[in-house]
Amino acid sequence: MKAVQFAGHGDTDVISYAAVPDPEVGRDEVLIDVKAGALNHLDLWTRRGLPGLDLDMPHVPGSDGAGEVLEVGPDVTRFEPGDHVALTAGVSCGDCEYCRAGEESLCTDFHIIGEHTDGVHSELAAVPEDNLVLVPDHVDWETAAAAPLVFQTAWRMLVTRGQVRPGETVLVLGASGGVGHAAVQIASHAGATVIATASSPEKLEYAEAIGADHTVDYEAENFADAVRDLTGKRGVDVVVDHIGAATWGDSLRSLAKGGRLLTCGATTGPNPETDVRRIFWNQLSVIGSTMATPGEVDDVLSLVWDGTFEVALRDVLPMSETGAAHDLIEHREGFGKVVVVPDSEYV
Ligand SMILES: [Zn+2]
Question: Which residues, in sequence order, are CB contacts of 292 under 8 Å at separation 6+?
Fold first, then answer.
């Protein structure tokens, strides 16, 4: 079969689409005929290399994907050939104190398929049953592939960790990106007033179309100043920040007294300066979140499959153009998810 792969870390030119041996199907694994995969910022970090990330090379990336079940291992009970399935990439051990408490994304051995182990951006993939969800037949492959990682991340962050309530005001930064567009919709669904930031009139219009009540062009004005104006100097109850260094200070400045800063990523860098006085004097909470539990994944995906939440597709490319797909994400063009499909399936 063919698979996206890289033999070493570096720029997009390390990525190739080339033949590798077909996967072997373990006892608890499902063999999938992959129809679509989706990219995340994580794919860019994995390609570039991260401290402590020691991969077997060549590495096959891909933490989001969907396809049809071809074959199941003898211990698989939930799936059969012909089922439509999507990957949910978080792997937990099942018996540490956090797993036993039902907090799988806190697992002491937590890792992510496609980041720490081979992913699914390939023609075939063998995946543990526990890392698959059933997809209703009416859902298209691109949507099924693009939803799981960002929607589970945004759901746990806002609903479970952030406890967003009706009547609160939520600021979502980078509303046109994968996590951002999920966060706008989830905050709106939770009954909050949503302020969204983005960098162009088209992206702002899109943010409004999916539920933002107010929008701020962060390239035209400082978003913390805009939030002060929009809220009568009060600030917002919750900020969703997956951007990190570039926005951290203004995110803290945007919060009302007692506000919560939710963080699930740092695409612009991990070491922002923090004015600690602002945190204690205003009694702010900084709340981290990553991925989700299987129950949270089921909850949010049921709302994707029934159309409550919309998965924006920025572009669909053949897997052989994965390098170009990384560039689209890096340069923040367009809104929503970048999808890749096996070249043999690309029309
Ligand atoms: Zn565990």
Answer: 90, 105, 152, 153, 155, 156, 160, 300
